[in-house]
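Quick question, first post here. What does this chain look like in 3D?
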Amino acid sequence: MAKLTSYIVSWVLLLTACLRLSAGVPVPCCRMPANTSLCTSHSLELLQHIRTLLADEVMFSSIWCPEREVEVTTSTDTASVCAPSQEQGSRCLTPTNIPTPFNENKCLGNIATDLDHYAKVLQSYLDINHQWNPTKEEDMLKPMIREIKGLRMHCSLDNIPVDTFREVHFPLTWEEKSFDDRKRLCGVMHGFYIRAITINRALGYISSGDHCRQDNDSRKTTSQTN
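> Answer (accepted):
Ran it through. C-alpha cells below.
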C-alpha cells in the first residue's frame, strides 16, 4: 500500500508539472528517446552506412557518384522545424520579436516520415530485378534498412504518425535499368545523407533536453515583456 501511495503521489506531481502555467502557456513534458545511447549509436551508424555506400566503387561503377546531382525529398519540413529554437528566430529578443519555440512533435513527425520514406525507397530498389549484382546490392542496402528500423525503435519514433500522403511528391519509381537506376540511387542517397545529418543533429538536440530549457526561458522572457 505504501508503494502504491508513493506511486500515486509521484504521478500527481508529474502531471501537475506538465500542466502548470507559465505566462498563460502550459509547460510541455519533453519526450526523450527511450535509450539515448542506442538512439545516438543508430543515428551515427546510419550516417556511416550512407557514407560507405556513396564511396563504393563497385555499387556505382562507371557512374562517378560524387558528381551526381543530389536528389532531396522536399515533401517534409525537417530542416526548418527541427532547427534549434535560437536558429528559428532572431537572437535579439524584443517584445515583438521572440524566437519561435522548438516544436518537438512536429520535428519528430517529420523525422519519422523521412525515415519511413527512405526505408521504402531502399526496399523498392531491392525489389527490382536488375540482374546486375543482387548480392552486392543486398549487402549494401539491407543493413541500412535495419539501421533505419533500429533508429525508429530506439529513438521512440515507432508510435509517431507518418504522413504517407507526402510521398506523392517523391514517387517510388525506377526505370528498371541497372545503370539508370544506380545513377538515381546515387543522387537519392546523397540527399538522404544530407537529411540524415539534420536528423542526427535534431535527435542530439532533443536528447540533450536543451529545447525544454529554452522553451521555459522563452516563456519567462515573454512574461517579463508583458
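The longest strand covers residues 21-22.
Residues 59 and 173 are 19 Å apart (CA to CA).
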